[in-house]
Amino acid sequence: MPIAVLCEPTRFLQPKSHDDLCAARKEITKPFSRISDYYNMPRPEIIQKTSDHVKQLLSGNGAGHDWWHVHRVWRNALLIGRQEDVDLFVVELAALLHDIADWKFQGGDEKAGSRAAREWLMSVNVDETTISHVCEMVDDLSFKGAGVQTSMKTKEGMVVQDADRLDALGAVGIARAFAYGGYKGQEIHNPEISPTLHQSFEEYKNSRSTTINHFYEKLLLLRDLMNTETARRIAAHRHEFMVAYLNRFFLEADGKA
Ligand SMILES: [Fe+2]
Fold it and tell me: What is the CA(206)–ligand 1 centre distance, in A?
């Protein structure tokens, strides 16, 4: 789906009732609280500039965290977000920026992503409330181990977390898992190494395992961790596909197919 189509709902939102019109008029006539408000870009322009920026930064990443991963997350976040009562501007920004500097590629620095997101959002004059919300989401949303709580604080966070997790499932999720395993220099499968359910982020961050184990350490757990009904429905199908894939993998690995 072209990006222009994806952006449409937030670009052309129109007030519907008399009350909406009054609220919109108040918004237009309220005094500027900060000098940067005066120079605020229209939201569609901020989204477009942000997507251009992220595309330039992440294009060509061969570890499953490339621009097209972000694009799928963005699309899915809009798909889920339209079913929920959320601020789609915040959802779109967080979806676009969630992997801008992922700790996996930043020497384990957990705050690199929110720092880079803040720097970018300030450069396009986004207001501080939105910046803090987006940065909190970027900090919180990644999976940090089977035994580690990663609940999001806001509905917008839940939407983007679900969208990101959906891209770790199904046919795309399988492809991304092997791409990332190759990047990390992991074996595909080693029957002598068992999966580990990590109980802390440190343990998860420093673990070395196999890509097949990664299914048991993370991917197969995600279906039951979805926040929204829309994501739960999509995740159920993708989960089934991964189970079928693993069954076939073990048959072939054991010389039975
Ligand atoms: Fe991601």
Answer: 19
